[in-house]
Design brief:
Layout lengths: L5 H11 L3 H15 L10 H11 L5 H17 L5 H17 L8 H12 L34 H14 L7 H18 L6 H14 L7 H17 L14 H12 L14 E2 L5 E2 L5 H4 L10 H12 L5 H8 L3 H13 L3 E4 L6 E4 L5
Antiparallel strand pairs: 1-2, 3-4
Helix pairs in contact: 1-2, 2-3, 2-5, 2-10, 3-4, 4-5, 5-6, 6-9, 7-8, 8-11, 10-11, 14-15
């Protein structure tokens, strides 16, 4: 087994090289490997070497998955059983494959299919709705459990939450209002916990794919480095203990999504989420995630999620045309033209050197 997080430094080298295809593959593998931490799993050196071969273009993602499968089949024949490593490696390769695909459908059926693809042959009941109620002892709750949805109400609750999100409009919402809503939707569907195991990893993959439909180039590194924090934030978003003055709060999850979508640098420490967190001053805090915890600047941009997506792309690609912008975010050229005019009127961007040979300049601070 490899040392914790050493894999991250090795895979980041591909991002530093500046080759878009390698960087995209590396980010997907970082997320895939990092997400195993939510269930206390670690991938093997063999998985890392396989990931490198895929990133470097030596093998396809299908070949990478087959290589991992064959590796563990051979070890099983020899009596070298490593169930936890096998689960981590197999599921990581499948996450990398799904994140690399350009297809997605926003529906409970898609979430089920993602779960099935991740855990088929690894966990019992892959892709199937759990037929019993569950509880889970949580470190962050001092051994207490979140109240998950009753197994009898799972399908109805899934349909309700997904239909509500489909009908929700982000138009006119500020960035922070949008982030808060995304956090609330994510925590809501996670609380349903429709599967017997593997709910958090399946949720993370689904949400990453969903966020990409907004046009975001999701910073997968945040999931890679903070997957356990993500799970603990989901726990705190769904836990109430009124006797002890503890109320469900999405604030921790909002900090996570601000790092993920807005490139913020909030200090995401798991100890901050514990019910009996003691700050550096020795003060015991139960509910608040104050400035000493977030340690990141709040976004002051007065723009929507759609506008933020354009700002981030323009920042990265100053010479991009409106036609290319439209293709990148899946909008019409007419809509993009309207959005860029609005951003210029707000003083967030300006056009330099004319239409033909010009470029965009971002005038606002995105961090």
């Amino acid at each position: 087994m490899r040392e914790d997080m050493n894999w991250k430094f090795e895979l980041e080298e591909y991002i530093k090289q500046g080759e878009p295809e390698k960087a995209e593959k590396s980010e997907a593998w970082q997320t895939a490997i990092g997400l195993q931490a939510v269930d206390g799993l670690r991938t093997s050196e063999y998985l890392l070497e396989t990931a490198k071969a895929h990133i470097e273009g030596k093998i396809s993602i299908d070949a990478a998955q087959k290589r991992i499968q064959s590796y563990y089949e051979e070890r099983e024949k020899r009596g070298e059983i490593e169930d936890e490593a096998r689960e981590a490696d197999v599921v990581s390769s499948r996450i990398a494959a799904i994140l690399g695909e350009k297809t997605f459908q926003f529906s409970p059926a898609e979430w089920q299919e993602i779960h099935r693809r991740l855990f088929d042959g690894v966990l019992d009941g892959a892709g199937k709705i759990r037929p019993y109620n569950i509880t889970k002892k949580e470190w962050v709750l001092k051994g207490d459990t979140v109240l998950y949805a009753s197994y009898e109400s799972i399908r109805a609750t899934l349909d309700y939450d997904f239909n509500r999100e489909k009908q929700f409009s982000y138009k006119g919402l500020s960035i922070l209002e949008s982030v808060k809503h995304i956090a609330e939707f994510t925590s809501g569907i996670w609380q349903i916990h429709p599967f017997c195991e593997g709910n958090t990893r399946a949720t993370a993959v689904f949400i990453i794919k969903y966020l990409k439909t907004f046009g975001f180039q999701v910073n997968n590194e945040v999931f890679a480095a903070n997957s356990w924090y993500f799970r603990n934030a989901l726990v705190r978003a769904n836990y109430n203990n009124l006797r002890n003055g503890v109320y469900a709060t999405t604030i921790y999850l909002e900090l996570f999504f601000e790092n993920l979508l807005l490139d913020k640098h909030h200090d995401l420490k798991n100890r901050y989420l514990h019910l009996e967190y003691h700050s550096d001053t020795g003060e015991k805090t139960v509910q608040s995630a104050g400035e000493d915890i977030s340690k990141g600047k709040k976004c002051t941009l007065n723009c929507t999620l759609d506008e933020l997506v354009l700002l981030k792309i323009i920042k990265q690609e100053p010479t991009i045309t409106q036609k290319e912008l439209a293709l990148k975010v899946g909008k019409s050229e007419r809509t993009i033209k309207k959005r860029t005019i609005e951003l210029q009127e707000k003083g967030y961007i300006r056009r330099l050197n004319g239409k033909r040979n010009g470029r965009w300049e971002v005038l606002c601070e995105l961090m």
